[in-house]
Amino acid sequence: MVRVYLPATITDLADPDGLAPRRAHAVTGALSTALPHDDEEGREYAAQLAAADASVLLLAAQPAAPRRRVVVSADLAVQATGHVTDPDAAPSAIEVVVTVAWSQVACVHVDEAAAEADVAAAIDGELTAAERLVERDLLWYDVSELAAFVASSR
After folding, report:
1. pTM score > 0.70 for this model?
2. Could you tell me the residue range of the domain that residue 11 belongs to?
3. pLDDT, tens digit (0-9, with 9 covering 90-100), for 57-74
4. Number of structural domains, the chain?
């Protein structure tokens, strides 16, 4: 099993089938090489941050979605993931090649509502807003809380 961090949007969380295949992030050999002095927890955090950054890109393509970054943490079989060959990809980048069922999700991390202005500004290319997002912690949600969270976020 491998813990993967999937970038998502609040709109994605409403899909009863789970999350469609997509590029995600994980602690890979390349990430471990890039962060040789970090422990496993530090590398996991780096992969989660990369997924949060990727969530901003998803939001740019979904103008109707609430402007909050979402990272879904899931435990998948190694066979459910593939390598990324793009040399410009983050060292944590992987491909999730299957639909991720909600039963595979460990938890979800989401920006607080107060981050929406910074997310919107980051989508518009404002670098200082993107820098502020790096400093914001994502809130933790258990999978059992998702339906209520999605309903309250619309």
Report:
1. yes
2. 2-152
3. 999 999 989 999 999 999
4. 1
